[in-house]
Structures are given as C-alpha cells and as structure tokens.
Amino acid sequence: MIVDQYGAFVGKRSERLVVRQGKEVLVEVPFVSVEQVTIASGGVSVSSDAIRECVEQGIQINFLSGSGKPYAKITSPHLSGMVITRREQLLAYYDERGLQLARSFVEGKIRNQINVLKYFAKHRRSIDAALHRRLYEAAERMDAVRAELHDLEASNVEAIRGQMMSIEGRAADEYWQMVGEVILGKVEFVGRERRGATDPFNSMLNYGYGILYQQASGALLLAGLEPYGGFLHADRSGKPSLVLDFVEEFRAQVVDRTIIAMISRGFEPQMEEGRLTQPTRREVADRVLERLESTERYEGEKHKVKTIMQRQARHLATFVRREGNYRPFVATW
User: What is the per-residue pLDDT across 134-182, written as a single tens digit (0 to 9) for each?
Assistant: First the structure.
C-alpha cells in the first residue's frame, strides 16, 4: 500500500487498515492482505494502533522522500534476533564468501542489463534494424566485459573491489548509452544521474529504485541479514550496503525495464520545482509494484518477482552460513 496524499491519516479499525483524507475513507483493507505500507508524502500521520498491528503482523512501514529516497522504516525489533546468520555475514566479508557474493552481484547486474537491451531489441527487429543491430553489438561488448570477472583472483573482496567496480562501470556505460538510443526523441536523457537529478527520466529511475530498496530491505531483514553489512559496496555509516549489493540483480529488470517501457509507450512525466509531480510518482509506483507482482521463471517454475527477491535473500543467508550456494537471479528477455 502506498500513501501519497498530503494530509492523509493511516489508522486501524477492527482488523482493517484504513486510510482517510478528512472524513473520506480512501482505502480500507484487511491487515492480512497488506505486505508493506509506504508513506510517500509529507503531512501523513499514522496512529500508534496501526503501527502496533503492522509490526505484530510483520508489515514493514516505509517512509520515502519526494525523490524516492528512503529516510525511515518501522519494523519489529525481533527481526534482528537471528544472531548466527548475522555473525556469519560479518565474518564472510573477510574470506572467499564475500568475494563470491560480490562477484555474483556484479555478474547478475550485467547479465540482467544485457537481457533488458535484448528485450527492447526484439521489438525493433522489423521497425529499426540498425538500432536492433547496435543493441546486440553493445550486449556482446558488455558480455566480454562481464567475462573479466572470472579472471580476478584474491582472497577477499576488499583486495579487488576497485577492479570489480571498474568492470561494472564499463558495462554500465555501454548500457546507458544504448538506453539513451532506445528512448531517443521520447524524453531528454543526457546520461545517468543519481542524487539530485532534475530531469524526468533520471527522476523516474531514482523514484523506482527507492521503492525497490524498500522491497529488498524487507526481504533481507526477514532472512535474518544485516542490511548495513555489504560486500561490493564499502561500509559507511548510515549506508545500507547489503541492500545496495542485493538490488544490483533486480534494478534493470524491475525498474529500468518498467520506466523505459513507460516512456517508449508515450508516457509523459511531469515535473514541478525540480521533482516529479504527485500523479507521475503515483504512476511510477504503480508500474514498479505491478512489475514486482509479475512472474519470471526461477528454479524451474514461475514465481512473482517479489517472491524471487525473498527466496534470493534466503539463499544469501544460507550461503553465508555455509549451508547452500548462491547464484544471481537472471531474468529472461
């Protein structure tokens, strides 16, 4: 559930979560049907009864800024009680487990970016053969860069983090250049901008990533992992490094593919005072959540993408405990 109306009130009535605007009931839904609540506007108030019921039923409450940046969340304090998993996660940073995980995150990111380019290429085979060819040529170059990951040798991730980030960066340069060609003429895009982006396309991407971060954070917490103890992304106070690591496998397939498709189909994002308007944020949120509800083939069966995220988080936890393997999720095209 996303609450993005200024002045809304989120409360509890019997066994139902209720969102009101003044005396008008905007949404009323049983708690058992709610997975997460995301507050994406200023001026929203939440009752203590609603918070307690959400926490007791395992419903995470997220708070996003107008640009999609997460700034707070409310979860049960008991989720941090899985000591063995967290102890092993922190120890894994110093041995081959951390190295293997970092390699998997980069591998998954690049392979999913390649498949996103192929996804948009297949729709252009007959209408723009030249672009179709350039997309495949870029995919081949990215795959050659990805292969360099397997030439890196070290005893831990810290020794070769710079080389991994270089590989990830060179593949990303190819990827974003081709994304620019796919959406050429639809919306202005001069390159990928993260923090402080003021153009519509980058703003849509950043807002979509904010929603994805919350989904990833919830999956990692439920798996007993520490969201701030990453491998590929370096430690920094207040930086959820494992969330940033974990979403690398999902960014391109969940957010990029969704936003590129919206723009390609003629969606015209609106901005005011340097950020997306509320209707545009709502449209981005709806489409990203819709993508999380869509299915992909995973471990021999079709599952919702959000379910795949939860399973990948559990695989990550069993891997750091030396109880299983970890392979990146790669969606089809």
Answer: 999 999 999 999 999 999 989 999 999 999 999 999 999 999 999 999 9
Per residue in 71-103, pLDDT tens? 888 988 776 667 899 999 999 999 999 999 999
DSSP summary character for residue 234: P
**Residues 171, 145 contacting (CB under 8 angstroms):** yes
Which two three-digit tokens encode residue 248?
């690398």
Residue 37 β-bridge partners:
61
- Name the nearest CA neighbour of 326 among 212, 250, 246, 233: 246
Residue 1 in tokens = 């559930």
* Distance (Å, whole) CA 56 – CA 34: 13
- Residue type (1 letter), 328: P
Reported residue count of the chain is 333
Residue 228's φ and ψ, nearest 5 degrees, are -95, 0
| Cβ atoms within 10 Å of 198's Cβ, excluding its own | 12
End-to-end CA distance of the chain: 29
Contact 119, 257 (CB under 8 A): yes
Q: HSE on the CB side for 333, CA within 13 Å? A: 17
